[in-house]
Structures are given as structure tokens and as C-alpha cells.
């Protein structure tokens, strides 16, 4: 509750700041203050279970320690993102305060998606999250690639919204109680009524669009590649994790009882996503585009939570969101400092910028899932959830094989950094000040701590 | 009228919108097709609301039918917000390329 109110209020405040503050650096500090306050307020609610204001949401929202701890991860990752890449936002264009305002509105949408208790709030949350993203994607107005990405994202987003609404409508029509509340949609273990089944398939397709699962992933590489890099970092981490969280909550709470009937659909989508994401990432020359495909590949792992749908899966999705978001934000922060976004652009980075190369290596190892990093624990929890589920064991083996494939394209960057000679041109446009490098080291240490001691994060889920 | 007729009508409208999005190349026409999809949903929601209003559920809880009608208003509001953003994007594109043909957009493929 705190998060929804406060992020909306701070977004409006940032807009006023855009009108009255002429300086370019001030909006960043106001945004930083906002995200710190947002994190603190959410932590307070997670700690005590009580929101600051006693508003009756008429059961439309429901907060518990599961979704509050997810929001804590989201705000923590955004805090790191603002600290590391906030100064890059200033380079995109004139309207710095407005970009931050839009990001706070995205956070408001994410808060709604994390706490929804009726399909109406789910729809509104998804839209509040998506519409600012269309604008952020196109924020580099003179760049044709950015324009194209924005239009593509917008059309695909509208398309999937239409499909989602059709799904919600069919579920409403097939529900004898005539209700949108997710705990008031009666489900039996018997065969699904036709209308509910149609609704389920529509919802599945639209959510697969939102989280870019194959075969609905084709917009992702173009959009992530075309958008300004600093916003790609935001879209491919925090927003994607939020999409998965809403996906998991929707299918667990509404359709969880009849899991056996739609599990096969998820198996097909998961296997296709893992295969397509990993195999196409191998052939990419640009690191930015490789990270776009890697986000599809990581989505395949997160889909295992929907396949398993047990308590381990819920722990896994929290851990995966944290591990994936933090590592990707880190690697994008390094990428933003590079002159050349191709793999060859990283040649010999270790000789010229040893600290940047070291932290980038830790982030890439975490994305691959090497032990002692958070990424390993995240993948381990997902696979354990899938094994506990007890069906379709081949999917687990397939996921492990695909993780091995992913090592190829992540390690190629590490190899370029450590085992190749630097070219004559300068590698980085600026190595960042010492504060930036210290922050990267802190982020890397956090990833290592999560890799050794994941209970630190998961404990919060059972806090209340 | 039977509810099946409404379902068929809105599914036909929805499909026209969907096919239009996939087949047409003009950004404005694609945009209109999106609106057609959303309005097909609105029509079906109102039809279902009427269906529930005369059914068993409404006897227990009279507000059952109005929920879907309020949902329709939310869809209209959100569609308006989407239109304002979408038209801005199309205008931005037109300024740079002097065209709103989506075939023009293939720079990201390579």
C-alpha cells in the first residue's frame, strides 16, 4: 500500500520538478531521495505488516510478506540502477526529470501488479507499467532505431493488452459468481469449462508476450536493442521480473487447482524459450543484443517456477529476480561506459581497467550460474522446484544443458577482457569516478553474499 | 438474444482487429485495429454483465452485474491514454521519416 501511494506521489513531484528546476543534476538527487524513501517505507510495511495510511482497498489489493519482499527486491534493484546509471539518464535528452517521473510511474504499476487481488487491478497495473515504457523506449527522439523500437513495443503491447482483456472477459463470463476477484473464481479439479479454458489460453498468451517467452518473444531483441541503453537496463531487469511475478501469482492463485491440465502448455513454452533464447544469443556480435537474447534465455529459467508451482518455486522466483536484476544492472552499467558495444570492444579491458573487468566478470559468472554467485543459487532453487514437482524430468536436464550453452556467450566476453590485446583506440568513454567503481564493487559483493547465503533474502518471505 | 450470438459477434470483431494488426502496413490503420479489439472486448463484457444480471449470482449479490460495466469504463480510459501515447509516437516517426508505413522500419533486423 505504501509503495503504490508513494511512488505515484513521487512521480507527480518529479514532473513538477521538471517544470521548475532548470539544473540537470538536481532531478537525479530528488529521484534518489525518492527511491530511498520508497524502499524504507516498503521495508517498514514488510517489518510491521501495517501500512502508513489505513485505506480500505475493498479487497482489491492484498499485501503479504511474499509480495512485499518482492517489492523490496524491486526497489533495491532500482536504487542500485539509479546510483549506477542515473548520470547516464541525463545524457539521453533534455527532459531528465520527466524520465525519472516515468520510471516512478512504472514502479507504481509494478506495485499494483505485485499486490493485485482482482483481475481489474492486474489489468490497470500492467497498463500503468507499460505506457511509460513506450515513452522511455522512444525517448531518443532523433534516433530512427529508437523510434522504430518504440512503435514496435507499443503495437505489440497494445496487441497483448487486447488479448489479456479478452481472457479476463471470458473468465468473467465463465464464472458463475460473476466476479473479477481472484479468490472468487471457483475452480474444480474436474475438466475446465470451455469459457474458462479459452480465458486461460488468452491470458497465457498475453502474459507470455509481456515476459517475452517463445514463441511470443520476437519483439524483444529489436526493442531492447533500439531503446537507449540506459532504459534497456531498466526494462530488461526490473520490469521483466515484475511481469514474471504477476504471471506466477495469477496462474498460482486463479488456476493453481487445475495445474495438471495446463502444465503441458508451460512445458512447451519453457523448452522453446530456453532453446531459442540460448541458441540465438550465441550468434550475436553486439553485447547489447546478446544481453537482449540472454534475457529471453533467463526467462526460460524463470518459467520453470510456473511449471513447478510449489513453495520452492516461490522462493526461487524471489531469488531469481534479485540475482538476475542485480547482475544485469551491473553488466549494463559497465556496458554504458564502453565506447564500442561489440564483443571486440571489450578486448583487453582487464589491462586498462582492472576493476571494471573484475566486476563485469562476477556479473557474467552470476548470469551463467557459476557456484558462489547469486545466479547459481537462483538456478539451483528453480531446478529443485522443478524436480520436486516430480513430472517431466527431461525438462530439468534440458535446462541444465541450456545453461551450459549460455556459458559460451557469457564467457566470450570474459575471454575478450582477459586474454586479448587491447586495440589502439580508447576502450571506455569514461571509467567513472571512484564512487561509481566502489558501488560496482559493493554490487558484486552483494551478489557473492547472496550466492553463499540466500536464506538472507528468502527469510523475508516467511516473515509475517 | 442468446449469449452465444454476442460471443460470436465479438469474436468476429476481435479477429478482424487481430488480422488487421498482423496484415496491414499503415500505422494508423493498425492503431484502429487495436481499438477494434478493445471494443470487441467492451461489447462482450457488457453482454456478460447482462447475462449475470438475470442469473443466479445477481440474486445473492446485486452488484455483480455492475462490476463488468465499471470495467468497461476503465478499458475506455486506458485506451484513451494509450491512444495519446501511440499517436505521439507515430507523429515522432513521421517527423523523422515522412512516412507511417511500418515496412519502412527494418533497421534493427541486421
Key terms:
heterodimer, A: mainly alpha, B: mainly alpha, Helix Hairpins, 4 helices, 79% helix, 0% strand
Report what the structure shows.
The complex is a heterodimer of chains A (464) and B (110). Chain A is mostly helical. Chain A has two domains: 1-165 and 214-252, no CATH class; 260-464, no CATH class. Chain A contains 18 helices and no strands. In chain A, α10 (259-282) runs parallel beside α16, α11 packs antiparallel against α16 (393-419) and α15 packs parallel to α17 (434-452). In chain A, 61% of the residues are buried. Chain B has 110 residues and is mainly α. Chain B has one domain (3-104): Helix Hairpins (Orthogonal Bundle), CATH 1.10.287. Chain B has helices at residues 3-23, 27-53, 56-60, 64-97. The longest helix of chain B has 34 residues, at 64-97. The radius of gyration of chain B is 18 Å and the shape is elongated. Chain B starts with a helix and ends in a 13-residue tail after the last helix. The mean pLDDT of chain B is 88. The A-B interface holds A 120, 123-124, 127, 131, 134-135, 138, 141-142, 144-145, 147-152, 154-155, 158-159, 161-162, 165-166, 168-169, 172-173, 176-180, 221-222, 225-226 and B 3, 7, 14, 17-18, 21, 27, 30, 34, 37-38, 40-41, 44-45, 48-49, 51-52, 55-58, 64-65, 67-68, 70-71, 74-75, 78, 81-82, 85-86, 88-90, 92-93, 96-97, 102, 105, 107-109.
How is the secondary structure organized here?
The complex is a heterodimer of chains A (464) and B (110).
Chain A: H1 2-20, H2 26-48, H3 65-92, H4 96-115, H5 119-137, H6 144-174, H7 194-210, H8 219-226, H9 229-253, H10 259-282, H11 287-308, H12 311-336, H13 349-352, H14 354-368, H15 374-389, H16 393-419, H17 434-452, H18 455-458
Helix pairs in contact in A: 1-2, 1-4, 2-3, 2-4, 3-4, 3-9, 3-12, 4-5, 4-9, 5-6, 5-9, 6-7, 6-8, 7-9, 8-9, 8-11, 9-11, 9-12, 10-11, 10-16, 11-12, 11-15, 11-16, 12-14, 12-15, 12-17, 14-16, 14-17, 15-17
Chain B: H1 3-23, H2 27-53, H3 56-60, H4 64-97
